[in-house]
Amino acid sequence: WYQRRVRKQWYQRRVRGAREMRKSYLDNWDDFYAASEQLYLDEPTKFRFTLKYRHCDGKMVLKVTNNALVIKYTSDQVQDAKKLEKLNSMLVRHMVTKS
User: Fold this and answer.
1) Quick check: 91 and 40 in contact, CB under 8 A?
2) What are the residues whose beta carbons fall under 8 Å from the beta carbon of 91, sequence distance 6 or more?
């Protein structure tokens, strides 16, 4: 019974935390780039970056989060692949340098 109680409490905290998460969808690449850099610099240990590509739609969805704020950018342009490389290199550069 103890494990069930602990599991239930964990689930309730997780659901409550998911409800408190703020989401933003940005249309401008420069705003997304600056926001993702600031999000990483605020809390590097909680930062996550995901990329999802749907070939059937030709859409690329970039998502950055720190478990409290989610920022998404969606694009269907081929030119944005270069921008993705720029964002990735900026994040890696921040990760390897000592702050």
Assistant:
1) yes
2) 36, 37, 40, 49
